[in-house]
Amino acid sequence: MTAVDLVRDALRSAILRGDLPGGSRLVQTEIANQLDVSTTPVREAMRDLASEGLITLDSHRIGTVRKPDWDEMVEIVEMRRALENLAIQRAMAGITPEEMAQAKEIATDLSEEEDLGSWVQANIRFHSIFHRATRGRRLAGVLLALEEAGGVFVAQAQQLHPEIRRRAVVDHFALLDAFAAGDADRALEIQSGHVNLPLEAFEVDTDRNG
């Protein structure tokens, strides 16, 4: 792991766990001192996080953790739904036994992971296997970008309703079973419900709180 990886993963996990809530300021020198690295990898890591949509950077390169924008989450879910049929069909045709084994291993890890930040990052790795299996550079890139942009909302959903994680874990294994059986219709049904989980959690929370 490079210094950039170290800083990026540490900051991403802290944001996803809620240790750095929306509005938190990220000063490069302070982060460098905390993580015992130079400011160069901090600067690069913050650029990466900005491209993922987790933070914004001002003209002085000071970062601010973005507050979740649920209108953006709606857009992400709508885009995912629009692409899922094509993605499932292509991934099912292209996925290899090695990729299936890797996805199963990550799914098992997700069923045991307790740290929210680590869970969300592993969840992205799980789904990225299926994105890459589409064998379409642009399609895979768009799907991965949406997956990463949705990470903060996945974390927020689990903070609102912890049972969402259990349902997501069940979906992971069901998706693997559908792929193993070559059942594209079942895989699409599972994935369509899966990408909707954050919105579902938010809608329930809105109903409860008026």
- Alpha-carbon distance between the termini? 46 Å
CATH superfamily of the largest domain: GntR ligand-binding domain-like
CATH topology of the largest domain: Four Helix Bundle (Hemerythrin (Met), subunit A)
SS elements, strand count = 3
Helix content: over 70%
Which ranges are low-confidence, i.e. pLDDT below 50, for 5 or more consecutive residues?
none
In percent terms, what proportion of residues is strand? Answer: under 5%
CATH domain class name of the largest domain: Mainly Alpha
Write the H/E string, N to C.
HEHHEEHHHHHHHH
Q: Largest sheet, if any?
A: 3 strands, antiparallel
Computed CA radius of gyration, to the nearest angstrom: 18 Å
Mean pLDDT: 92
Whole-number total of structural domains: 2
Query: What is the second-level CATH architecture of the largest domain?
Result: Up-down Bundle
Helical segment count: 11
Structural class: mainly alpha
> How are the strands of the biggest sheet laid out side by side?
1-3-2
Question: Which geometry do the CA atoms define?
Answer: globular
Describe this structure in words.
By secondary structure, this protein is mainly α. It has two domains: 3-65, Arc Repressor Mutant, subunit A, CATH 1.10.10; 70-209, GntR ligand-binding domain-like (Four Helix Bundle (Hemerythrin (Met), subunit A), Up-down Bundle), CATH 1.20.120.530. The chain has eleven helices and three strands; from the N terminus they run αβααββαααααααα. It has helices spanning 3-17, 28-35, 39-51, 70-94, 97-112, 116-132, 137-149, 151-160, 163-181, 184-195, 197-209; strands at 25-26, 55-57, 63-65. It has a three-stranded antiparallel sheet with strand order 1-3-2. β2 and β3 form a beta hairpin. α4 runs antiparallel to α7 (137-149), α8 (151-160) packs across α11 and α9 runs antiparallel to α10 (184-195). The longest helix has 25 residues, at 70-94. The radius of gyration is 18 Å and the shape is globular. The N and C termini lie far apart (46 Å).
